[in-house]
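ok trying again, last paste got cut off:
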Amino acid sequence: MVEFRQWFAKYQMFVLEYKVKPKPQQVQAIEEAIKTHQFVRNKVLRYWMDNRGQGKAELFRYNTDLRAGYEFVEELNSHACQTAVERVLRSITKFFDNCKKSKPGKKGYPKFQKHNRSVEYKTSGWKLDPQTKKHIDFIDKKNIGRLKLIGSRDLYYFQPEQIKRVRIVRRADGYYVQFVLKLDPKDTVKPFPVTQKCIGIYVGLKEFYADSNGHLEPIPQFYRKSERQLNRANRKKSKKYRKGQPQSKNYHKARMRYARKHLKVSRQREEYCKRVAYSVIQSNDLVAYEDLNVRGMIKNRKLAKSISDAGWSRFRQWLEYFGDKYGKATVAVPPHYTSQICSHCGVKVQKSLSTRTHVCQCGYREDRDVNAAINILQKGLSTVGHTGTYAWGETPSSLVGAILLGYGDSVNQESSSL
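nice, full thing came through this time. structure:
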């Protein structure tokens, strides 16, 4: 993790994503490339499991042996095979880091992939159209060929040497091509003007958030509103399933319809969190919020669905991303007793979750969430002399959670829709 922090401080990466519409023969080639990528990853992981103590050099050497022993592996670009090995190394490193830190519960022992959805190239195996940069050719022996890039962002303004990775990603609604650029997002925009305002934010399940100014942002609950449609689509899918038999085309069509509905809900939540976070950063110079352990909170089976539907982690990631991009301060503070302590006199007032109004013996009366937001702001202002979320000695989610695609060498993804 220390090495990754040093790497993050030195480099900034920016991800651009484009929709592509491959022809049927290209779809087959893309799927073959994705399966080959998964095959290499699983074979290298098995080699590591059977030969403990093997290091990075041995794993890459085994990858070379795979290319010599399997013709379909040799057809995939050599850099794409190397990225499969890098994925294994990342999972191994994460596992040992969790062991060293004595992380409670499961340590994340590396697992075999069953449903890989992407293949990643480095600086070879692909070529952009030098004239318009609206088309990309994949030139390895998988014969994917030329794909048209559909999106609003123009690659024409970036230098070819800035493109460090190219990925083909399969989602429920089709295929996408992602470009990982060596670029600091702060260089693409001007900082927001100074507003001389600061705000504390308390996220919840009744309202999306309450701020220290008394504003209550309504919670959208995208999953709850779509739950009936999702359940209906899931039932239709299940009725077509035949245990122990090859599944029919109708089953796969129903499965894709169900997946597309889930993808729509996920995108609605993502865009909402992004829009609200952008508005908050634009209006304030300092934003304080709770450093919540969302992963631990969703273990409560009575609240897990509502917490996941709220999207607190995504909201925090976008807050920290926009704060860093536009030059605003974001501070994560400990959440202990923020909803119990009176923001007016500092006395602890015990109350259950059903009590929605804070009433103190000093005479102060306020909405429970607004009172907590004021406490969060006070804690945040007490750490302004430190740097962002490092104030409490924790690794900020802008460093860990900003890997929006789950890769150790790509950070700060921004959707092309913003």
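cool. Residues 1-11, 387-418 have pLDDT under 50 and may be disordered. Residues 187-384 form a domain with the Nucleotidyltransferase; domain 5 fold (CATH 3.30.420).
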